[in-house]
Amino acid sequence: MRLIIKDLCHRYDDLVVLDGIDLTVQEGEVLAVIGPSGCGKSTLLGIAGGIVAPTSGSIAVAGAVPDGCLNPITFIFQDFALLPWRSVEDNLSLVLEHHPLSAAERRERIESGLRRMGLWDFRKALPKQLSGGMRQRVGIARALAVRPAMLLLDEPLSALDAQTRELLMEDFLSLWQRERTTALYVTHNLDEALRLADRVVVLSRRPGRLREIVTIEEPRDQRLEPSAQAHLAEVRDRLWHLIRAEAQLADREIADA
Amino acid sequence: MPDTPLTGTSLPLQDRSPSQPVRFRGGGFTVKGHRWAALLAFVVLIAVWESTNRFGLVSELFLPPPSAVASALAAMAQDGSLWQHLKASLMRIGVGWVMGTVAGMAVGFAMGIGSVARAVGVPLVSAFFPIPKIALLPLFILWFGIGEPSKFATIGFGVFFPTVIATYSAIDSVPRNLIRMAQSFGLPWASILRKIVLPGALPGILAGFRITASIALILVVAAEMIGAEYGIGAFVLTAGNLMLTDQLLAGVLVLSLLGLTIGTVLSILERRLLKWR
């Protein structure tokens, strides 16, 4: 599935947060969005997912959805957004209950999602009994249970420690290797973007405008190879150069505010 | 491997001054459980109270000893009057509280999820909430007569406003990210209400129940003192008029036990329903 964003603008009252965004996320592509704090990255994701109404511009999708897809555009949240009163399996069940599925199919989807994330043994646990990394895996399993055509990931690793981040990045890589799900991935972290994305979109400070789109040539599964490091370091320098001054200015603006 | 000393210039030279243990400074400011302290305090209080009477320090008429209060309570239980009064009070609390709670939750929910209902409701609730509800009993007697309906109305009215406030505040405190998550997965509005808003608001609603149960207890006593033949409030008032202070305190003890029982039932309910916290 492709996502096509045309001349998108968004404002909260008098505050313009996004201005003139034109962007297409290609089928099977992982597109990372980076930019300074407050540049409208999460708003862009909310608009793309249909939970924030844009002030102007258009958002459209095109292309096929996978068999059994129940929610073509599916979020993975930074704070996991799990219901604390439901067990792990019931959190997955929540997003299936309003669909006309047989009990057997619902069970199969839950089991398959949990097994893929290594959480089957924890299916009866409450979210409070899990570590941050496991909670985010529940969030991923919940997203997988609806067989999405496109994932919208809102800083999914930023609430986690460095080791858990590494492990979850491996999970994402194997997921994209297997499923080729289109993904729009918002992050603050350049290394995450370099590790996971096919292209990186750099937004300016508020109002967020598209500054540059950087393509990462190395295949995702070879980015830890020594031979890839020189080029990735170059890309990283370029991305950092693009956002450094913007981030400093944004930081000052926030301090002044 | 030989044990060679580190001699890097960046490391400090070995200090040979005498060592001192680091003083512990982290104590206090933590609440510890003292299981027997409360029981002991009760025993001491009752013993002191009893001995003041035994040693003639206080007249039995003004403050009867705990033993006399216990005897009066036992006598009431034996002749059945205790159950008659208790039954009347419990029925009034039950009906009034349920009426006020059901109506309060319905209005609170409407205000919690509907902006028009909130715009209309908040000023009305703010205006009516501070009125001492017992002041309206004469009006309710005029409207509904001296019988039970006026007492139900007083208790129901008293319970209604705190329930409204507790319910819409509890809905406000449901994390918005959970609602956005549900919307992003396409859950229908009614499902979001039933599966997210209601369970998410439950802690606040149950906290409101604790407050409204106490209000119902206060109002039932007040209403029974104004116009009732049976009920703990009526019994306490009659005992006071006849200067039967042992029976008066027996009635007060029953009220205290009633409050304690309601509190315990609510605690059990909270533990069962909110074990996820």
Report on the architecture of this protein.
The complex is a heterodimer of chains A (257) and B (277). Chain A has 257 residues and is an alpha/beta fold. Chain A has helices at 41-48, 88-94, 103-116, 132-145, 162-179, 190-196, 226-256; strands at residues 2-12, 15-25, 30-34, 56-62, 73-76, 150-154, 182-186, 199-203, 210-215. In chain A, helix 2 packs parallel to helix 4 and helix 3 (103-116) packs across helix 4. Chain B has 277 residues and is mainly alpha-helical. Chain B has one domain (67-273): MetI-like fold (Orthogonal Bundle), CATH 1.10.3720.10. The mean pLDDT of chain B is 92. At the A-B interface, strand 5 of A face helix 7 and helix 8 of B.
Give the topology string of chain A: H per helix, E per strand.
EEEHEEHHHEHEHEEH
Instruction: Provide the number of structural domains of chain B.
Output: 1
Instruction: Write down the CATH topology of the domain at 29-38 and 69-182 and 193-198 in chain A.
Output: Rossmann fold
Tell me which protein chains meet in the greatest interface and how many residues each side has. A-B, 23 and 19 residues
Global geometry of chain B? flat
Proportion of strand residues of chain A: 15-25%
**Tally of alpha and pi helices of chain A:** 7
Protein name (chain A): NitT/TauT family transport system ATP-binding protein
Family (chain A): Belongs to the ABC transporter superfamily.
Domain ABC transporter (chain A): 3-232
GO molecular function, one term (chain A): ATP binding
